[in-house]
Specification:
Helices cover 44% and strands 21% of the residues. It is α/β, with parallel strands linked by helices and 241 residues long. It has one domain: Rossmann fold (3-Layer(aba) Sandwich), CATH 3.40.50.
Length: 241
């Protein structure tokens, strides 16, 4: 499990370390995201949001929203409102600047918050999304349970997360890229030598695929399914309340 994997291996709580890490890399995050993924992440988000199209959600919560890219993509669903929450004020600072430039502040609101302490009543949202954030939860099951709490009955949760490909030679290339290339490039551009090493460590420890589906099911999510992307580099998990 990812609870014991932390960015800086200090005595402070994982949540605090993750917030510090993202504050540190916030200025270069969007650039590095585009560079290190070769732009593939945009297609993954598009596919993930597309899975909500049939349900036509009007009130959406985007957890670990960062600079708001998932929330912005979700506007294609024509919702009335999207609220994004994140523990990193540094990331949301750049997200809010992006929303102002795109004239989207009336549609998307970014608030400080995290999955374990969502300040919303039960049965509030028609849908919720998490893009590459569940690995960073301090307590994975507590976060997932609280997400389910604020979802309306019949509502859908969409979770996009890195996974581990098993097919040759994608597995070998992926392992080399995540272990050596990402930390090196991340260190050069973000000036945080641990952030992109933590990325590799947290992905390796994450209970992906069937293991994650079993956790979702045990916590009360219904009709759970997993859709691998790009030979298993990432996976979309879907569950309903």
């Amino acid at each position: 499990m990812t609870e014991g994997i932390t960015p800086y291996n200090t005595n402070t709580a994982k949540k605090e370390q993750v917030a510090e890490m993202f504050d540190n890399i916030a200025r270069r995050y969007d650039f590095l995201n585009q560079l290190l993924s070769l732009g593939i992440h945009k297609g993954w988000r598009k596919k993930a949001v597309g899975m909500l199209k049939a349900s036509k959600p009007k009130y959406i919560l985007d957890i670990a929203t960062g600079t708001g890219d998932f929330a912005i993509e979700a506007l294609k669903l024509n919702p009335d409102k999207i609220i994004g929450v994140d523990i990193s004020e540094g990331m949301m600072k750049y997200g809010r600047e992006k929303l102002i430039k795109m004239n989207l502040v009336d549609k998307i609101e970014l608030r400080s918050g995290d999955s374990e302490n969502l300040s919303f009543a039960e049965n509030t949202f028609d849908a919720l999304t998490v893009g590459f954030g569940v690995r960073n939860f301090e307590h994975l099951e507590k976060g997932l349970s609280n997400m389910l709490r604020v979802l309306k009955p019949g509502g859908t949760a969409i979770i996009l997360e890195f996974s581990r490909p098993s097919v040759f030679p994608v597995k070998q290339v992926y392992h080399f890229y995540f272990k050596w290339v990402c930390p090196l490039v991340g260190k050069l551009f973000s000036k945080d030598k641990r952030a992109y090493s933590y990325l590799n460590e947290s992905v390796a420890a994450f209970p992906a695929g069937k293991d994650f589906l079993s956790i979702m099911t045990r916590l009360g999510y219904a009709d759970c399914e997993a859709t691998p992307l790009s030979f298993g580099i990432a996976t979309i998990y879907k569950g309903k309340k």
